[in-house]
Amino acid sequence: MTEDPTERPEVPRRSRVAETTEQGVFRALVAFALLAFLFYLLYRLMSPFLVGIGWGIILAVTTFPLYRRLRRGLRGRETVSAVVMVLAVTILLVGPAVAFVGLLGKQAVQAYNVIERIGQEGGAVRFLQERLGSYESHQVIGPWVAKGRAYIESASVDLLQTVGPAMEKVVPAILGLFTRASTNFFAFLLDLVIMLLSLGVFYVKGEFLLGETLSLLPLKTQKKELLFRKLDQVMKAVVHGILLTWAAQGVLGGIGFWAAGLPSPVVFGVLTAFSAIIPGIGTTLVWLPGALYLLLAGKTAHGVGLLIWGAVAVSRIDGILLPLLIGGKVEIPLSLILAGVVGGLFAFGLMGLVTGPLLLAVTLFFLELYRERVLPPPEAPAGPEG
């Protein structure tokens, strides 16, 4: 007895739809995996050049308004305008930066020797004990001075064993961010050449590359413009506001050390700029020990002058410059940008000063987009029953 083909059970339509959906999901996963693998290979290929390209992007974004004005003045000649801008950046920024790194390398050796000598000789502890010794015979404060000297003497051993070696590690680590250019000159030169070449390319093709990049994002035009505006605001806030403020604090700190007669003012100016990152303490971590050292060494006028200069000029200039340079131009809270700067510095080095806040801004943007598109809207509170 043969089976009638018309009587075969028909596959349910829902099963066929589910099977088609599973095939589509599998193909999408394979495509995404292949795309991720290609991006990984591209990263391995471009990793030696990422530092130079990154600094080229930062310089291009911050100086692009000047390039646009120059291009308008040269009647739309993009190549000529780009060449002039690259030469200007090289002369005004790169040249002084290279000279500064050389000077910093020389003074770094002097600063390290001074810190090492202070640690070996007892430094501020020895000076403090000598200065307090003359007051032990005083009728009123003599007993208190004697107790203070005994406490300092008992704590001096721990101080020398902890603070001294810590400073000897911290100072070379911070200075190494700059002096690495002199120890690995070929890598520094390669990054410099790539940065300048990238800068010229971004001047000429930057607007085109930005449009192509934004076209790849699966977002509406309004959201793309919003994302670009946020990133532009954050980068300009970091470069024009935070970094310039810290640089100003470093310059003022170096001037104070130079006027007080302390050695290696360039080195301690750099340390002052980096110490501005630390919340709460800030630049006090650098200029206060210098002022105390001068006071305990008997140079009272220089010590008091450095105290006043550090407290009034160095530590307070950020309260003036940050609102002036940034103001209300950034939609993201300044505290989050500062957190991105500090975290980026520790995670990615100097490049992280800019990439950290940018990553934070992108993350916050997509979290907000996820809340709008995926999460259900909050339910309105129920009104009173009538």
Task: Give a quick summary of the entry.
With 386 residues, the protein is mostly helical. The protein has helices at residues 13-46, 50-73, 78-121, 123-133, 142-183, 185-215, 221-259, 265-275, 284-296, 300-314, 317-325, 334-348, 352-373. The protein starts with 12 loop residues before the first helix and ends in a 13-residue tail after the last helix.
SSE blueprint and pairings:
Layout: H1 13-46, H2 50-73, H3 78-121, H4 123-133, H5 142-183, H6 185-215, H7 221-259, H8 265-275, H9 284-296, H10 300-314, H11 317-325, H12 334-348, H13 352-373
For the structure shown, list the relevant keywords:
single chain, mainly alpha, globular, 386 residues, 13 helices
Characterization of this structure:
The chain is mainly α. It has a domain of 155 residues. It contains 13 helices and no strands. The radius of gyration is 30 Å and the shape is globular.
